[in-house]
Specification:
The protein is an alpha+beta fold. It folds into 6 domains: 2-42 and 177-204, 2-Layer Sandwich (Phenylalanyl-tRNA Synthetase, Chain B, domain 1), CATH 3.30.56.10; 45-172, OB fold (Dihydrolipoamide Acetyltransferase, E2P); 226-417, Phenylalanyl-trna Synthetase, Chain B, domain 3 (Phenylalanyl-tRNA Synthetase, Chain B, domain 3, 3-Layer(bba) Sandwich); 425-491, Phenylalanyl-tRNA Synthetase, Chain B, domain 1 (2-Layer Sandwich); 508-609 and 616-732, Bira Bifunctional Protein, Domain 2 (BirA Bifunctional Protein, domain 2), CATH 3.30.930.10; 749-836, 2-Layer Sandwich (Alpha-Beta Plaits), CATH 3.30.70. Strands 29, 33, 34, 35, 36, 37, 38 and 39 form an 8-stranded mixed sheet that branches. Helix 7 (269-281) packs antiparallel against helix 10 (390-405), helix 12 (442-451) crosses helix 13 and helix 21 packs across helix 22. The longest helix is centred in the C-terminal third of the chain and has 19 residues, at 814-832.
């Protein structure tokens, strides 16, 4: 919203010493945020004056143009300085425009001046003459083309606008300052000079003159016939008629200038008057060509499928809930949004019906959004306008039309309906102090609420406040607290940080998730975050069979992309795409991980959607929770390319399946969870190179080498590996306290053992038996060789383990080490059928 200072001060008497910067600062404190200050004089330097055209000689040119060689009186002093030296001779100027004549007053810029765009003016020879300055158009001085009523070309001033040589800055409004505010949606009253001036008066406790307070004619039954079928959508409809209007009457310069300063383009007097009153009072007005109306004007809801061609020439199909204005010929306008083309005011209109109606804000908003109509009137109607000033706004429009356009006002006035009844709000005196932390007494509460226009009934402990009609945003006690607080000053509210209660910290799950993240970072992995949505294409790329549970997804009602319309059941697509993108940009190897929830439908159907007008019942909440999908927390890891970088130290090593399993082993060890590993087969991993990971018999997830087709689909090198596990399972099994490793200063005893087992016996089973059989002296066990061949026979394999023994308090003897070793081998033989290889 743009507001000229000169217009604001018509309604409020600000202190003489208040600067524009001080005013805007105080208004910003009150909630009208400053966007900028425009000063027309800042864009122009040098002499810009009124001139009277003395002579005007047309001169045709060889290029087909006709220029005018003019002499212009710019006052005795400037005539002497820039002309022939004689005070009465004027200055010579070449002008290419033709919309003026000798005797007209024009705006002249003289040598030494600089116009907007750093356009410097000097005396120069052109078309055979020395042109001393320039006769200006509106555009050349930074105004709208028709800012002073001229259709195009040179600005022609009114005959009594001023004397030659007088500064033109004031006449053009270039010495006026224009403030631009950012208006919040709940402060629609500030989309008017009436509202901004009221805030300025509030800021300085200055006298205020409400432009909407005026004597208006009483309603008459003989006025233009109007009927309202939907009083909720249109509570008030005021109609006034002006006859004998002169459609050729120009918009006066002062009105055109103010419209331009406020950011609106002058069009014609009839349209400009309605726009001017809308800016002045905040009440949108619509004018009809009364001679084009047929019968009674009626307000009703549209019937689905009805059509209307609006003023912008667009043929629109209407929805059933939209408010429309009709007459006997059909629909003539979208109520409060845009008028229809059939009753538009034109260049031949001499009889005007002025409509000043109050419309339901919600209906206005929905209609504007549905038809993608954005207008100044719509902005105000959809935010809520004062419903009590419809008569005053219509009367102001009629006054300007008759005064400026020569029309006659019909004495009969139509007023249908009444403004909605105001609602009282009860508020305790102590509430503003309790909310803000300031010392705000009852007297201050009362004075500030009265200052914003509330009518108060004072009681012992509080007030019953009736908000003013221009403030539909005030609906509860805390709105009133905000009004009191903003007048007191938000900068007065103390900055007091709340004291957190003692004894609280991270939850167990939060601590475990942080430990998991640190462990993965220590393993050289980098975290990524992907969109948690998936489509059939990604599941196909993973090679999932049709009956895989991961294809049963939760479909979103309003997805971001039609290609990925479901919440994901696996984190692998996102992390695999991220890995492929990094490798495609030249990375030698990647180690990425992602944690996030996935969703599996419960089979209870779609989640019900309830309204917001009531609290859901227990049964409704139960149905809602029953439809919520299971959302376990998953971890996905991908390792591709170099796992160990190559360099001057030697050759690197590509990531393999063992690295994937090792990542999970490290996590399990960090959380104190015994991990079980077994061979398995599951998409998207390579058959025979996939491990199933379990904790206490519960499947945790899978790890291993990805299928070659999956690698190709995601742009990964062959033999890339991946992990996906259920972190909820891992964290449930996590030990409350993970003991740190014990260190002994005594020497280690090393023993190696090779055991022959059947080929289908997992090495992890043999290792578990050795660990249990060796007892507490065993420090570590590691598989370092697997052999198959003639020496062990067909269907068998040899597993070589390195056993390390150590005691915390002594050096082990050979007998103790041998006994522990034999016990380990013996239990492995019992559990797995292992035979020691000699």
């Amino acid at each position: 919203m743009k507001a000229p200072i000169s217009w604001i001060t018509e309604y409020v008497d600000l202190p003489a010493d208040v600067t524009t910067e001080q005013l805007t600062g105080r208004l910003t404190d009150l909630g009208l945020k400053l966007e900028g200050i425009e000063r027309g004089a800042d864009q122009i330097t040098g002499p810009l004056v009124v001139g009277r055209v003395l002579t005007m000689s047309p001169e045709p040119q060889k290029n087909g143009k006709t220029i005018n060689w003019c002499t212009v009186d710019v006052g005795p002093e400037l005539n002497s300085a820039h002309g022939s030296g004689e005070p009465a001779d004027g200055v010579g100027i070449v002008c290419g425009a033709h919309n003026f004549a000798p005797g007209d007053l024009v705006v002249v810029v003289l040598p030494g001046a600089v116009l907007p765009g750093d356009f410097a003016i000097s005396a120069r020879k052109t078309y055979g003459h020395v042109s001393t300055g320039m006769i200006c158009s509106a555009r050349e001085v930074g105004l709208a083309e028709d800012a002073l009523g001229s259709a195009d070309g040179i600005m022609v001033l009114a005959p009594d606008a001023g004397e030659p040589g007088q500064s033109a800055f004031g006449l053009l409004g270039l010495d006026d300052e224009v403030i631009e505010f950012e208006i919040n949606p709940d402060r629609a009253y500030a989309l008017s000079l009436r509202g901004i001036a009221r805030e300025a008066a509030l800021a300085y406790d200055a006298p205020y003159r409400d432009p909407a307070l005026r004597d208006v004619p009483r309603a008459s039954r003989r006025g233009f016939p109007v009927e309202i079928d939907d009083p909720v959508g249109c509570p008030v409809f005021v109609a006034r008629t002006v006859s004998g209007f002169d459609p050729a009457a120009p918009t006066p310069g002062w009105m055109a200038r103010r419209l331009t300063q406020a950011g609106m383009r002058p069009i014609s007097l009839a349209v400009d008057v309605t726009n001017y009153v809308m800016l002045e009072l905040g009440r949108p007005i619509h004018g009809y060509d009364a001679d084009k109306l047929q019968g009674t004007v009626r307000v009703r809801r549209a019937v689905a499928g009805e059509r209307l061609t609006t003023l912008d020439g667009t043929d629109r199909e209407l929805a059933a809930e939209e408010l429309v204005v009709t007459d006997d010929s059909g629909i003539i306008g979208l109520g409060g949004v845009m008028g229809g083309a059939t009753t538009e005011i034109s260049a031949t209109t001499t009889r005007i019906l002025v409509e000043s109606a109050h419309w339901d804000a919600t209906s206005m908003f929905r209609t504007g959004k549905r038809h993608k109509i954005s207008s100044e009137a719509g902005r105000r109607n959809e935010r809520g306008v004062d419903p009590t000033i419809c008569e005053a706004a219509a009367d102001r429009v009629v006054e300007l039309l008759t005064t400026l356009g020569g029309g006659t006002a019909d004495p009969d006035v139509t007023v249908v309906g009444a403004p909605p009844a105001p609602v009282e709000i009860a508020m305790a005196y102590e509430l503003p102090a309790r909310v803000t932390g300031l010392e705000i007494g009852a007297d201050l509460v009362v004075s500030h609420l009265e200052a914003v226009g509330c009518a108060l009934i004072k009681e012992d402990t509080g007030v019953l406040a009736t908000p003013p009609p221009w403030r539909p945003d005030l609906t509860d006690p805390f709105d009133l607290v905000e009004e009191v607080a903003r007048i007191v000053g938000y900068n007065e509210v103390p900055s007091v940080l709340p004291t957190p209660p003692a004894g609280r910290g991270l939850t167990r799950d939060q601590r475990l998730r942080r430990r998991i993240g640190r462990t993965l970072a220590g393993a050289g992995c980098v975290e990524v975050v992907s969109f948690p949505f998936v489509g059939e294409a990604a599941l196909d790329a993973l090679g999932l069979p049709a009956d895989d549970i991961r294809r049963r997804t939760v479909r979103l009602a309003n997805p971001l992309s039609t290609e990925e319309p479901s919440y994901t059941t696996t984190l692998l697509p996102g992390v695999l795409r991220a890995a492929g993108r990094n490798l495609g940009r030249g990375a030698g190897g990647v180690a990425l991980f992602e944690t996030g929830t996935v969703a599996f439908p419960t089979g209870a159907g779609s989640a019900p959607i309830y309204g917001v007008d009531h609290r859901p019942s227990d049964d409704e909440l139960a149905a809602l929770f029953a439809a919520l999908p299971a959302q376990p927390l998953h971890l996905a890891v991908v390792l591709a390319g170099e796992r160990v970088r190559s360099g001057w130290w030697g050759a690197g090593r590509a990531a393999d399946w063992a690295d994937a399993i090792d990542v999970v082993r490290r996590l399990a060890g960090e959380l104190g969870v015994p991990l079980e590993v077994a061979a398995s087969s599951r998409e998207p991993w390579h058959p025979g190179r996939c491990a199933e990971l379990s904790v206490a018999g519960e499947v945790l997830g899978h790890a291993g080498e990805l299928h070659p087709k999956v690698c190709a689909a995601f742009g990964l090198p062959a033999r890339a590996v991946a992990v996906e596990i259920d972190l909820d399972v891992l964290m449930r099994a996590a030990a409350p306290v993970v003991p740190g490793p014990a260190f002994s200063s005594f020497p280690v005893a090393k023993e190696d053992v090779a055991l022959v087992v059947d080929a289908d016996v997992p090495a992890v089973r043999v290792e578990a038996a050795l660990r249990e059989g060796a007892g507490e002296l065993l420090e570590s066990v590691r598989l370092f060789d697997v052999y198959t061949g003639e020496q062990v026979g067909a269907g068998h394999k040899s597993l070589a383990f390195a056993l390390r023994f150590r005691a915390p308090d002594r050096t082990l003897t050979d007998e103790e080490t041998a006994a522990a070793r034999e016990a380990a081998v013996r239990l492995a033989a019992e559990r797995t059928g292992a035979v020691q290889r000699t």
